[in-house]
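Hey L., structure's done. Input below.
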Amino acid sequence: MKQLKLLSYGFLFMSVMQCATVGANNRSEFEQWLQQETSSFQEYKDKRDREFTQFLKTQWREMQTFQGLVRDETPKPVSIPVAKPEPHIPIVEKIIAEKPIKKISDFKIPPKKLPVQKPEPVKPAPVVRLPQGQKIQLNFYGQTLAFSYDPKLKIRLADSINENAMSRHWSELSKADYESLIKQLQQQRNPLQLNDWAYVLLIHEVAGKIYPAQQNERMLLIWFVLAKEGYSARIAYDDNQVYLLLPAEQQLYAAPYFTLDGIRYYALGLEGVKQNPGKVFTYDGQYQGASKLLNMRLDKTINTQRKQQNRQFKFVFQGRHYLINAENDLYTVDFLKTYPQMDIALYYVAEVNTATGNLLLEQLRPLLVGRSEQEAVNLLLRFVQTAFPYKTDESQFGVENYLFPEETLYYPYSDCEDRSVFFAWLVRNLLGLDIVGLDYPGHIAAAIRFNQAVKGDGVDVNGRRFVVTDPTYINATVGMTMPAYRNHSPKIIDIVF
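Output:
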């Protein structure tokens, strides 16, 4: 029996040793395979960079930039008329089928007091420490972030700016350990809730720490990093300056651009200074694998450290006085200031900072309870029409400047498109009604699809009737069009999420 046990132990030991040997051989084979694959990938990257380096030596041509596109050259009204709500004879008397009038209390109303959600401070992602890395620290909209980079990334541009200098610069950057820096940038993207535009600004801030006094080198590093991340960024240069050219999925305005391969590349000033390149040299083609366009849609709110500023709004509705308190995050406002001008439809669908939005909505929501849809909309109209002083963008900013909802809450004045965007945000979040923008020459209003018959001016949108609601026309109620635009057929701004 004892001999049988010893024999069994012997077989078990031999089996374990055999498995260990097979496992070691398998690990060895896997490690060899991984090493070969890593080596092959590095060779591929090197080959790609060598080819692009050679490409940059020859494929340049002189081009003239186009001036930025203009959205609407029709002057906006300088002063706004005051409506006399009663009596009102509607221009359009097309009434939808009669339905029982719903009260706001018939809908599911959230609790009267919603918690004001203030984002938690973001904990920066761990810094990847390079063997001989240089450490930098920066403040990004209140968040303190740390990075480490390979000193070989800090390359001075040759004295003469030409195709040979561009080619050499790319070649030297590609020899550095850029992957570690890109990994750190990517680690910060989700915690900070960065869309494409905010991510470009983060890269710009990091490049500014590496090149605090060299603007051209900073642009070249941003170009290099974006290309390595798959974005179809390009550069252009003249005798003195290097320009970063960025493509976008959406059309941008008031920014000089080139059209290359059917795509517009915009010269955007990341420092808040408008770029104005004239004749410059740029290249045809692109870095292999770099084909993504920037998605400029503000589909997430940047996570800042939050610096609050309070503001009060007063209005009167049906003889009763109301006082609304608002809090703005100044870091979010600073971020929104950097945004290039876009189509108005993108402002209607922009996300709003949760803490800012909830505080405002929780004060307005109880004012709507028990009212019909029409009466609730009239209250919101009166709030936007009279609590926000009117002034055109040209008077306030010197240029056309559409505002996001948070900017309307921040700046001392707003004009028609700002109010239409802000009003639409209120209607969607408080009443859940379908709304479209109305684009008249030099004026933007809105229109709502009610659940019951409502008299007044209206527009047809795909067989559905939307009633005019103008948040700029002072004291106007549902169904009233500003007199100067009654004979105009507006373009419909569809709000698609």
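Residues 391 and 413 are 6 Å apart (CA to CA). The longest helix spans residues 2-56.

-- N.
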